[in-house]
Amino acid sequence: MEQTLAILKPDCVRRGLIGEVIRRIEAAGFRIRAMKMVHLTKKEAEGFYAVHRGRPFFEELTTFMSSGPCVPMVLEKENAVADFRALIGATDPAEAAEGTIRREFAESKGQNIVHGSDSVENARIEIHFFFPSIELVDRR
Ligand code: CMP
């Protein structure tokens, strides 16, 4: 079964939206296989988003992602990577489809509530960034 990494970002936590976003994730058929709350340091955020180093938004992104606790989770479902990206909508909430999580809750491209891996390969890398194998639930 395919897995993806989701992060409920610091704006989601700060605005009290953890429950509502998880409700939508579960209602869409995803099973939560791992989950925790962590407050990333700036260096850890830079490590997670290393592929974006050099982009104009890198400083803003890593400052924001280390500004408060976030909730990384491993989600499982058939076609999890693509289906999760469809559930959350486009990076920019103004461009996100009606009914998507970002369209409903996100305030900007930067503060956009939730992250989802963009490929199966990146999902594997991102899952291991946050979760050692002992924290990954494998019971049905
Ligand atoms: P995410 O899915 O976490 O992956 C990279 C993040 O960079 C993305 O969500 C956005 O929050 C952020 N991002 C992408 N483009 C911009 C931008 N133009 N300005 C600010 N943040 C951006």
3D structure, described in words:
The chain contains seven helices and four strands. With 140 residues, the protein is an alpha+beta fold. Helix 3 (42-48) crosses helix 4. It has a single domain, classed as Alpha-Beta Plaits (2-Layer Sandwich). It is 39% helix and 14% strand. It has a four-stranded antiparallel beta sheet. The chain is globular and about 35 Å long. Bound molecules: adenosine-3',5'-cyclic-monophosphate (CMP). The site of adenosine-3',5'-cyclic-monophosphate has 9 residues, from helix 4. The active site is at residue 115. Its EC number is 2.7.4.6. Homotetramer. One of its GO terms (biological process) is UTP biosynthetic process. GO terms for molecular function: ATP binding; metal ion binding; nucleoside diphosphate kinase activity.
**Radius of gyration, CA atoms, in whole angstroms:** 14 Å
Q: Give the total of domains.
A: 1
The helix count comes to 7
Indicate the CATH architecture: 2-Layer Sandwich
Tell me the major beta sheet: 4 strands, antiparallel
Percent helix range:
25-40%
Mean pLDDT: 96
Strand content: 5-15%
Q: How far apart lie the N and C ends?
A: 11 Å
Structural class based on helices, strands and sheet pairing = alpha+beta
Compressed to H and E, one letter per element, the order equals EHHEHHEHHEH
CATH superfamily: Nucleoside diphosphate kinase-like domain
User: At the third CATH level, what is the topology name?
Assistant: Alpha-Beta Plaits
- Bound ligands, named by name, code or SMILES: adenosine-3',5'-cyclic-monophosphate
* Text of the CATH class: Alpha Beta
What form results from the Cα inertia axes?
globular
Low-confidence stretches: none
According to DSSP, the number of beta strands is 4
Spatial arrangement of strands, main beta sheet:
2-3-1-4
EC number: 2.7.4.6
Pfam family, one: NDK
Subcellular location: Cytoplasm
Function: Major role in the synthesis of nucleoside triphosphates other than ATP. The ATP gamma phosphate is transferred to the NDP beta phosphate via a ping-pong mechanism, using a phosphorylated active-site intermediate.
